[in-house]
Amino acid sequence: MTDGLPEMTSLERTALYKSLGNPLRRRILDYLGRHGEANSTGLARELGESSGTTSYHLRKLAEQRLIEEIPEKSGGRERWWRVLPFRHTTPDPATMAPEEYAAAAELAELKIEFDTALYRRAHHEYRGPEGWAQVQRHGTWLTREELAAFMREYHALLDRYGTPREEAPDGARPVLMRFYAVPEPVGEWNGEPTGP
């Protein structure tokens, strides 16, 4: 599901996963997320690419509604871009077309590498419960419905406390957050496999 956008088709999700798996597009999104805005010339200089290459990838990211042009700053051939708010939940793999599943799996592998490094960094930079880096691990018993409700409240908390870059108060920093929930591997639970 994408917040505020119509449900995506399998072809659109496949294109999204491939786009997010493209190393240059990921670097462009990261740069825009950190700096707020950029044009193709500035991105080319910062990322060591040609402006034609960055311009092409910016247009592709805009087609997927991941970024948008800033009309008040754009003029002539110079177009400025900013990131759009975006949230996506990958559907059940059993419902995916083969190409969509392959693209999602490839993107997941990239995310796992990044998230593993992020997890290690969070542990390394942890300075106590009031510090910037936080690491929490918990275990509890939940029904599937309770877990789904927890996820909805987790998203609501992100919406409540998070702010877009342009509205962030003084002292705010970009914070990378990850959440995983997986049942204990007990072999089978109510007829469903739950792990090795």
From TrEMBL:
Q: Output the InterPro entries linked to this UniProt entry.
A: ArsR-like_HTH (IPR011991), HTH_ArsR_DNA-bd_dom (IPR001845), WH-like_DNA-bd_sf (IPR036388), WH_DNA-bd_sf (IPR036390)
Q: Which SUPFAM superfamilies match?
A: Winged helix' DNA-binding domain
Q: Which stretches make up the HTH arsR-type domain?
A: 15-106
* Gene3D superfamilies per UniProt: Winged helix-like DNA-binding domain superfamily/Winged helix DNA-binding domain
Pfam families in alphabetical order: HTH_20 (PF12840)
Q: Any idea what this protein is called? A: Winged helix-turn-helix domain-containing protein
